[in-house]
Specification:
The protein has 8 helices and 7 strands, in the order βββαααββββααααα. The protein has a 7-stranded mixed beta sheet with strand order 2-1-3-7-6-5-4, with helices on both faces. The longest helix is centred in the C-terminal third of the chain and has 67 residues. The protein is an alpha+beta fold and 322 residues long.
Length: 322
C-alpha cells in the first residue's frame, strides 16, 4: 500500500497515488506490492531494497548512498504494549527532496507523526524534517517502553528481596519470577538492538544533511536526536545490568531454599542415627545379651533411644544450626 503525503497550506495531506505521487513529500510504502515499488522506482530513478536486503545486518547494507539517494535502515519495534514487540527493519530513503519509507509492520510512530503533520502548521517542512520527526517519535516510544520495563523490574526486585516477616515463598513462585525476568531481559535486549541501529542511522544522517547543505535547524535536530538515543541507550544498559543482577539473585535465593531443605533432611538423619544404632544393636539375635532378660530392658532401650535423639537436636539448636 502506498500512502503519499504532500504539503498544502502548511499541513500534510494525502493526495493519493498514481498521478498525484509526483508532488508527494513523503511516500510511505507499507507492505508494498511489486507494482507499487516499480512506481516509486520509476519516479525517483532508484532501486528500492527488497525485504531480504532490508534484513541484512551488514552496516554497508543498511547505510549507503546510491545515485544521489541516501538509504538508511533501522530496526524499529511495533506492538510495544507487551513484552514481545514486533522487531522488523524499516528503510528510509532521501531522494530528490522526498522521503520514502519502506516497512512491513505498523509502528505507532508513523501514525503519531502523520496525525501531527495533518494538524500543522509546518510552513517550511522538508523531507529531512519529516524523517527526523519520525525518528524522534520512534525514540520517544522506545523510551516509554524502557520506563515501563524499569517500573516492572523494580516491582520484581521488591518481590525478590522481600523484607523479614513477609509471607513465605510459595511453590512455583521462583519459576514465575524467572520467567518474568527472562521476558524483561528479552524486551530490553530488543530495545537495545533497535537503539544501536538508530544510533548508527543518526550518525549517518548527520553526515547526509551536512553534505546536502541542510539548514541549521535540521542539523541541530539530528544532533539532539543522537544525544537522546545515546542517553536512552545508557538507560537500557543500566536496566540490562539490573536484570542480570536480579537473575543471579533469584538463582541465589533458589539455592538458599534448596540448602535449607537439604539441611532439614541432614539434621533429621543425624537425629535419628543414634536411635537407629541402638535399635540395631538390640535387634541382633545373640544368645548372651544380658539386657534381654532384664525386666526394665525394653523401657531402658526406648529411653536411651529418645535421649540419643534429643541430645543432638538440642546441640544443633544451641549452635544455631536450626
Amino acid at each position: 500500500m502506498i500512502a503519499a503525503h504532500a504539503m498544502s497550506e502548511g499541513r500534510m495531506t494525502q493526495p493519493g497515488a498514481g498521478e498525484h505521487l509526483g508532488r508527494a513529500l513523503w511516500i510511505d510504502l507499507f507492505e508494498p506490492s511489486e507494482e507499487e515499488e516499480r512506481q516509486v522506482e520509476a519516479l525517483l530513478s532508484i532501486d528500492l531494497p527488497t525485504r531480504e536486503e532490508m534484513e541484512e545486518i551488514e552496516l554497508s547494507s543498511r547505510l549507503y548512498s546510491d545515485g544521489g539517494a541516501a538509504f538508511m535502515t533501522a530496526i524499529i519495534p511495533a506492538q510495544v504494549h507487551g513484552d514481545a514487540p514486533e522487531m522488523l527493519p524499516v528503510t528510509f530513503v532521501l531522494a530528490e527532496g522526498r522521503l520514502v519509507s519502506i516497512r512491513y509492520h505498523d509502528p505507532s510512530a508513523f501514525r503519531i507523526v502523520t496525525g501531527r503533520l495533518e494538524k500543522g502548521p509546518f510552513p517550511h517542512l522538508c523531507a529531512e524534517d519529516v524523517l527526523v520527526m519520525l525518528l524522534e517519535a520512534v525514540v520517544d516510544r522506545e523510551a516509554d517502553v524502557l520506563e515501563r520495563a524499569g517500573r516492572e523490574i523494580d516491582a520484581i526486585s521488591r518481590r525478590i528481596f522481600r523484607r523479614h516477616g513477609a509471607k513465605p515463598t510459595q511453590p512455583g513462585e521462583f519459576q514465575t519470577t524467572l520467567e518474568e525476568i527472562g521476558r524483561k531481559g528479552d524486551l530490553v535486549s530488543n530495545i537495545r538492538d533497535s537503539l544501536a541501529s538508530l544510533d548508527r542511522l543518526s550518525v549517518y544522517l548527520s553526515q547526509v544533511v551536512a553534505l546536502r547543505g541542510a539548514g541549521k535547524g535540521v542539523r541541530e535536530q539530528v544532533k539532539t536526536l543522537s544525544r537522546d538515543i545515546r542517553s536512552i541507550s545508557d538507560h537500557a544498559d543500566s536496566l540490562s545490568q539490573k536484570i542480570t543482577f536480579l537473575l543471579d539473585a533469584t538463582l541465589g535465593m533458589i539455592n538458599i531454599e534448596q540448602n535449607a531443605i537439604i539441611k532439614i533432611f541432614s539434621v533429621a538423619a543425624v537425629v535419628f542415627l543414634p536411635p537407629t544404632l541402638i535399635a540395631s544393636i538390640y535387634g541382633m539375635n545373640f544368645e548372651h545379651m544380658p539386657e534381654l532378660g532384664w525386666p526394665l530392658g525394653y523401657p531402658a532401650a526406648l529411653g536411651l533411644m529418645i535421649v540419643s535423639a534429643v541430645l543432638p537436636y538440642l546441640y544443633f539448636q544451641r549452635r544455631g544450626w536450626l
